[in-house]
Amino acid sequence: MKWSKELRPKPMPVVAWAMTVLVAVALVWWISDTPLGIDSAVYRAGGFAVLRGESLYSPLHELPDWALDLPFTYPPFAALLFTSLTALPTQLCWGLLALAAAPSLYVALRPFADRAHLPLLLLGAFALQPVWQTIGLGQVNLVLMAAVVADMFLLRDSRWRGIAIGIVAAIKLIPLIFIVHLLVVRRFADAARALATFLGVTAFAMVVLPGDSVRYWTSAILNSHFAATKGWVGNQSWQAFVQRTIPDGTSATVAIVTFSVVFAALGMWLVHRLDRAGDERAALLVTAGCSLLLSPISWTHHWVWVVPALGWLVASGRRRGAVVIAVLFTGWTVAVVPGEGGAERDWTFVEAIVGNAYLIVLVVAGLICLLRPFKMYNGLYRRCGLKTMPSK
């Protein structure tokens, strides 16, 4: 279907409309005192722990009555940032993070999607489980993804490039892989700035919060609180897949370590080849996919990178594939299979395919990229209104 210029939705009005709806929802939830934003409540409680000199990695005292007794699992630097949330009531903290969803999606989609489909992709993104779950939980996934994309593409000619990736990595450690990405694509100065920023803000947190820093880097980093739920269907990482399918023991450990090394090596080789072929966007998506695959915990709301991936697919003419993936990522695959209490170990073959759908989509996409010729889609850049990237 082709839209006329008069009927075609515009990106910025879509962003404004989405932000207005999210503000209204936040106000309704606040007034009705309806619980929403469990993770943003944890962020806020972590900020209070810093201000009151309490331990970050002990039970949090400022969690609302309706919240689960979840621990603070982020590095101390993140807690320093979250002190800003202590100025707001719990539900308005959620509203603030929810409000950031629409502009974050716009920033993340802009380099990947063509102008004609960008507004519709923005609207459709809210139907994807990683997006609506991130918003409902009050998570920071969309903001962090937008910061990485902005650093890689929108700030490409800025002398500050690399700094945003360093800050994002200091908030959640898994984005450290994007510093490796910068090295693989030979943006050495950017990688150096990113690493220096990460080390600098982490050192700052150690000075301000020495006790919490020692505890985090020696024990809390292992995130043992979620060890019992690592095989839960809501965790779509390789390690979770192994835990769901192979009995605990040496075989499981070997499978996790061996295939993680293989996935990492193939992923970075593919990033190198894609970058040299001029497809920087696909290269970044591969790195993002590696982060989800290799992380011990990749909750379904962590998979927000499916949004720019769909934009890239649509812009490159793979609309049917984009539709299929979008349908799979609406959340039904996780909902229809038995979950929790170790039920995942007793899945049938069909349940295993459905319950591991996110992971399977990622692995299949990686195999397709590995097996196809490396003459990439220069036409994609022209359709997006961008200059074709020269081969290196």
Briefly say what this structure is.
With 392 residues, this protein is mainly α. Helices cover 62% and strands 0% of the residues.
Search tags:
0% strand; 62% helix; disordered C terminus
Give your account of this protein's structure.
It is a single chain. The protein is mainly α. The chain contains 21 helices and no strands. The longest helix has 27 residues. It starts with 10 loop residues before the first helix and ends in a 9-residue tail after the last helix.
Give the overall shape, derived from the CA principal axes.
Answer: globular
Order of helices and strands: HHHHHHHHHHHHHHHHHHHHH
Distance between the termini: 37 Å
Helical content stands at 55-70%
In this structure, how is the largest beta sheet organized?
Answer: none
- Total strands: the figure is 0
- Beta-strand content estimate: under 5%
Low-confidence stretches: 1-9, 375-392
Average pLDDT confidence is 87
Question: What is the SS-derived class?
Answer: mainly alpha
Provide the gyration radius in Å: 21 Å
The number of distinct helices, counting runs of at least 4 residues, comes to 21
